[in-house]
Amino acid sequence: MKIPLPNHVDQAVAAAVRAPSPLNTQPWRFVVDRDRIEVWLDRARVLRIADPDAREARLSCGAAVFNLIVSLRSNGKTLSLRVLPRPEEPDLLADLLIDGDRFSSPEERRLAEVVFRRHTNRRPFQDRPVPAWARTTLRAAALVEGGLLELFGRGDRANAVARVLHRAEAAQARNGAFQAEVALWTRRAANAPDGVPAPTKPPSPHGIPAQESFLAAGPEGGEPVLGAILTAAGGPAADLRAGMVLQRVLLTATAAGLATSFVGRPFETPETRIALDRIFADLGRPHTVLRLGYGRPAPMTARRQVDEVMLRRSGVTL
């Protein structure tokens, strides 16, 4: 007899799939086994050309893990998290043990409330500065998860990132396999459950602006804030942790009324990834770069249903 899942489990997985992923590939699977939820990398949904080492896919799965945690804690559950990528089982990324009940905090409820509002906004930002209080709040959010958010605008670091972006764009424009992979994940139907709808097709898996508009908010002339997500070290476990840092920052930005998009192209070619490591060597290992500002309304991409991404091993007692 199939035992129905408790509502908080369905809600948690529904929240998890709202995490961002390259080209909306959604490279995750969730396995529920009694009081445990395992998070697995779905290799079939990893971009083989843009992300051959599955680094960005693990980053996305880390963001999904954070959404799981926020949803469960906001529903009054206590959790134990293990970050698990190991050489002998590299695709089992994490598991969460639900081990009791508790009162949720206002911060947990606040973040849970914006999970379904957060989305990548590729449109031009408004000519409106990001205030100091918001920058401080975003930096603090990264620190809570053990990471670093380095904010920067115009200047040497931004110019160096722009040059690396230009090199990545040029390399990817010459790479037919890369272009074919982007086309593979581009959908004609706007309500497709994965991939990127054709009307909002980005030029790369992360939909970054062209080189000439990299440092501009848009026709209004506003200046965006750029932010690098960093950890002390690299590797599979660090990728997952960085995804958790990223998602807390993204949700905090959404709660503050900010829009976000990704500067992902330089992370998608080996040469430019090495160049980014050098640019941020004084701070740590960069995992992604964000563009933050005040945006205008933009459509959200769809997600797969919970029953398409979740498996059950046995009867559930959660």
TrEMBL record:
One of its GO terms (molecular function) is oxidoreductase activity. InterPro entries: Nitroreductase-like, Nitroreductase/BluB. NCBIfam families: Rv3131_FMN_oxido. This is Nitroreductase. It comes from Amycolatopsis umgeniensis.
